[in-house]
Structures are given as C-alpha cells and as structure tokens.
Amino acid sequence: MKRGFWISFGIAAFLFAGVQALAQDDEGEAQPEKQKGSELPAARGDAVNGEKLFRIHCAACHGFTGRGDGAAAKHLAVPVINLHDGGLMNRRTPTELAQIIERGAISVKGSRAMPSFKEALSPLERWDIVAYLETLYPKIQDFFPEAGRFTVKKFDMDDTGKSRIKKLLESDLSPAESSLVLITVFKGGSERGEPRNIPYVPAELDNLKKEDKLGYLAFFDIPGPKGSMSVGMAIAPNGTILKLSGTDALGVNAADNRMLKEFEGQGKRGSKPEPFKARTKPANVYAAGVFRGWVRMIEAVYGFERDEKDRTWAD
Questions:
Q1: CATH of domain 3-133
Q2: Residue 21: pLDDT above 80?
C-alpha cells in the first residue's frame, strides 16, 4: 500500500476519533490546550481549497461528502461520524477543530493511537479544512443569532418519560429515539463572535443564568415523502418552535424548508399538547414527524430543567 494512502487514512481516522470522542463524553469533556498554529487566523480559511484537501486526506473514512461512508470506514472498530450532524459538530469551536487536526485525538480524550498530523498539513491548510467542515453542518447562530454561550448534553429518556411520550404519540420510541442531544443556548459571553461551549459541569453551569436563556436546539431525522430528512429545531423556553429547517444541503430543497416553516410558532408545553397541523395540505406530510421530534425535545428539556433546578435550588 502506498505511503500516501496511509497518511490520508491516518488523518481521516484522526479527525474521526477526535470528534467522535465528543459523542462518548457528554459531561466534563476536556478542553484542548491552545497552541500556536491553531489559533484563529486573521482571515478565515478557504473552504474551496479545504474541500480539495478533505477529499485527499479525509475522504478515505468520511467519504467525499462527509457522511462517514468512506471506503476505509468499514475497517474501523466503531462507526465513522456524520460531519453533517449539527448536534455533534457544534460542540467544538473552529479553533478547537483546528487544534484537533494539529495535535491529535488525545487532546479531546480520543485514541492515543491517533498522533498529531501537523507535519502533513500546514496551519493554513488545516484552517482551510476547518472552513470546509463548517459548510457541512448548521451553526447555532443560524437558529439563535444572539447566541453567546451554550451547553450540550445527551439526555436519555427514563421509563417515566417514555411512558409520557407513549401517551402523547400512541406509540413507543425506538431505541435510537430514546435519547437526544440537547443544546441549551444563552445570550452574552461570546468569544470572537463565536458562541462559547460551556462544559456540562456544575462549576461552569453556575455562570449560566435562567434570565439569559434564549432557548433550546436539537437535530434529528423526520420521515418524509422522499425518505428520512435531517432537521434542526429551535424552541423557546416555553416550547414554541422558533425555527425549523432542513440541515442537509444536499438533501433538502427550498420547497421542503417552506413546508417546514409552516410549523414555526406551534408547540405549547402542557399536560396535553395538541398534534401539529400545517397551513397547507402538502406540508402536513411532515406533521407527525415534526410533532414526534418536538415531543422528544420537550422531554430532553425536562431533563435539563431538572438538572438546573437541582443546581440552583438555593438561588
């Protein structure tokens, strides 16, 4: 096997392991130490060149479009992540992504077998790849323009929550639906115009005040006439849908997003939420899936609020 392939394979696996570590460590995750060369450059990277570099160095595992379906992916012990997953990718700032590429997966509790590849890519090339990666997934700012800080946790539905959801949906959740990554968004405290990720540990969360909370954001799939569609849903603290849009630029068109927009403004927390209904008949093909995702999201919000109440009971 040629040396170039193994360099490319190694970088792809390294990127994968670095970000994959995020999915495996929801609380108290390590923050990579800033080093020269990975700091935010005066001008952001070139996404066009980054795509070319990505296909040379990363596509072996991640695939040409970043969905984790590269030829080498089947040889890895765990599935390769989908780089279009906003719930996962938003956990790292651009600077941190550049540091992962530079320093190796160990900087985010990833595999020690994944070394630094700073010799294979120059600092500018690393930032070009980061710029390209940023085009693949929706940003928190796309849903909450005033976002300054956020915190992320995967919430697993307990038996009480599953029972509550079953009554509303009149069906059981699948194992994959029984957990959800929830992003809770707050105003203020951004860094260089980028929202800051606040680790989900009490000492850090104490700095997040209820009055600064803008709402919640989650990414999930809903069924549609053309198959499954990935969406991002932002809701206000009271449960109202603020924004709903498709998140996969290659699989969602303007007509889909117009139909999804019809569900914005719906949703009200209470003992018996009403199923959603779109204004137009074509959009109602998404109604059941949107409502199902919203119900799961509200259950995750209950989980965050329980943690919040336990943490702030003496305030």
A1: 1.10.760
A2: no
pTM, rounded to two decimals: 0.82
Residues of CATH 1.10.760 domain(s) within the chain?
Answer: 3-133
pLDDT tens figures, 193-209: 788 899 999 889 988 99
Q: What is the DSSP string of the chain?
A: --HHHHHHHHHHHHHHHHHHHHHH--SSPPPPPP-TTSSPPSS---HHHHHHHHHHHTHHHH-TTSSS--TTGGGSSSPPP-TT-HHHHTTS-HHHHHHHHHH-GGGGT--TTS---TTTS-HHHHHHHHHHHTTTS--HHHH-TTEEEEEEEEEEP-HHHHHHHHHHHSSPPPGGGGEEEEEEEEES--BTTB-EE--SSHHHHTT--GGGEEEEEEEEEEEETTEEEEEEEEE-TTS-EEEEEE--TTT--HHHHHHHHTTTT----SSSPPPP--SSTGGGGGHHHHHHHHHHHHHHHHHHHHHHHHHHTT-
pLDDT digit string (tens) for 54-68? 998 888 888 888 888
